[in-house]
Amino acid sequence: MNWQIELRRVGKEYNERPVLQDISASVTAPGVWTILGPNGSGKSTLLKIIAGLLTPTEGEVVYLHNGERLNAQQRRQVVGMVAPDIALYRPLTAIENLRFFARARGVRVQDGDLLSLLEQVHLRSRAHDPVATFSTGMVQRLKVLTALVHRPPVLLLDEPGSNLDEAGMEFIRHTVRVQAEHGIVIVATNDTRELDYGEPLIQLGA
Ligand SMILES: Nc1ncnc2c1ncn2[C@@H]1O[C@H](COP(=O)(O)OP(=O)(O)OP(=O)(O)O)[C@@H](O)[C@H]1O
Ligand SMILES: [Mg+2]
């Protein structure tokens, strides 16, 4: 299976203020790439455009599977994303959040598999606790799982290591490695701990 994402002359303005201009790039599975740049340079904006959550002002992002172009709905199903402004449902428990995100992606996952996922981030014993009772780092670990629950071929990570301790960072590194063996990972970051994930794809605001 061959996955490819092409950015074709992407530009974005917010209220006529340009943030991104004329960005072209192409990535093919398997592999990991980084989007680098200082605060406010447009990393999160670009990642949201790649995810299909934001529409570019100019250009387009095209997903290809074995050379066939995916439509917007197909694209949603192949993407998993972790971002600071994607929120979990705080009154729901950890496992309820995972069930919700799986269902939103159109997949049914057995509770046993969800518990195994939670085990990987040391949250199994908290599976039935509301997310409102979690620490910031625990929320971030759970967020990463919600992006993985449907086993997406494309994983988009916006500062995935934020609020994570060394064990949490190691889980992210492991997740990136495993994903990059068969799929595509794109990491947006300016955290020096995350800079060596992969080849720089785009350097913004340089
Ligand atoms: N919804 C929005 N409406 C208006 N302007 C926005 C919006 N979102 C982002 N911007 C602006 O776009 C620019 C890029 O923001 P973005 O969040 O993409 O940067 P970033 O590189 O991810 O920054 P950081 O490293 O702080 O996360 C900033 O000037 C920001 O103010
Ligand atoms: Mg950002």
Taken in chain order, the helices and strands follow as EEEHEEHEHHHEHEE
Q: For the record, what CATH class applies?
A: Alpha Beta
Number of strands: 9
Could you state the CATH homologous superfamily?
P-loop containing nucleotide triphosphate hydrolases
CA gyration radius, whole angstroms: 17 Å
Morphology call: globular
Number of domains: 1
Low-confidence stretches: none
Return the average pLDDT rounded to an integer: 93
The name of the CATH architecture is 3-Layer(aba) Sandwich
**How large is the share of residues in beta strands?**
25-35%
Q: Which strands sit side by side, in order, in the main sheet?
A: 6-7-8-3-9
Count of helical regions? 6
Largest sheet: 5 strands, parallel
Could you give the distance between the termini?
A: 35 Å
Oligomer, anyone? single chain
Kindly identify the CATH topology. Answer: Rossmann fold
Helix content: 25-40%
Bound molecules: adenosine-5'-triphosphate, magnesium ion
Structural class call reads alpha/beta
